[in-house]
Amino acid sequence: MTQMVEGGGGTALGTGFSFSASGWWVSKEDDDSMQLKVVMPGLGKEHVRLTAEKNVLVIKVVGDKDKLEDGGNKGPVVKSSRRILLPVDAFKMDQIKAEMNNGVLKVTLPKTKDEDRKDVFQIKVE
């Protein structure tokens, strides 16, 4: 399976975690799912945001909330992000699971079986 990566670079929160074009994740694949492991030393789950839409998985590293002049909070500051383009309809995007443990983010992407895909049709040969 081919993954294409795009997005900005940089080091997150000065921890040495870098969104470089190569080597920032390890993937493992079996018949049912693909697992991504991203080493993010010094970061906890409060620093990571994941979103999935269509065939794109977005991993963001966030810092502390910006303070507004009136004392309110603006929201978390995105320190860096990465978009992973996945094959269309290859994964069950609404069933992705993620966990953060000891600075390692593990993302499990369940595969869509060919028989469950709505864009794959079996054609009877006569």
CATH topology of the domain at 45-66 and 76-115: Immunoglobulin-like
Radius of gyration: 18 Å
Largest sheet: 4 strands, antiparallel
H and E order: EEEEEEEEEE
Taking all residues together, what is the mean pLDDT?
A: 74
Report on the architecture of this protein.
The protein is mainly β. It has a domain at 45-66 and 76-115: Immunoglobulin-like. The protein has strands at residues 4-6, 11-12, 17-18, 26-29, 33-39, 48-53, 56-67, 73-85, 97-101, 104-110. The strands form three sheets. A four-stranded antiparallel sheet has the order 1-8-7-6, with no helix packed on it. The chain is elongated and about 65 Å long. Residues 1-22 have low confidence and may be disordered.
Write the SSE topology.
Layout (H helix, E strand, L loop, with lengths): L3 E3 L4 E2 L4 E2 L7 E4 L3 E7 L8 E6 L2 E12 L5 E13 L11 E5 L2 E7 L16
Antiparallel strand pairs: 1-8, 2-3, 4-5, 5-10, 6-7, 7-8, 9-10
InterPro entries: A-crystallin/Hsp20_dom (IPR002068), HSP14.7/HSP23.5/HSP23.6-like (IPR044656), HSP20-like_chaperone (IPR008978)
Family: Belongs to the small heat shock protein (HSP20) family.
Protein name: SHSP domain-containing protein
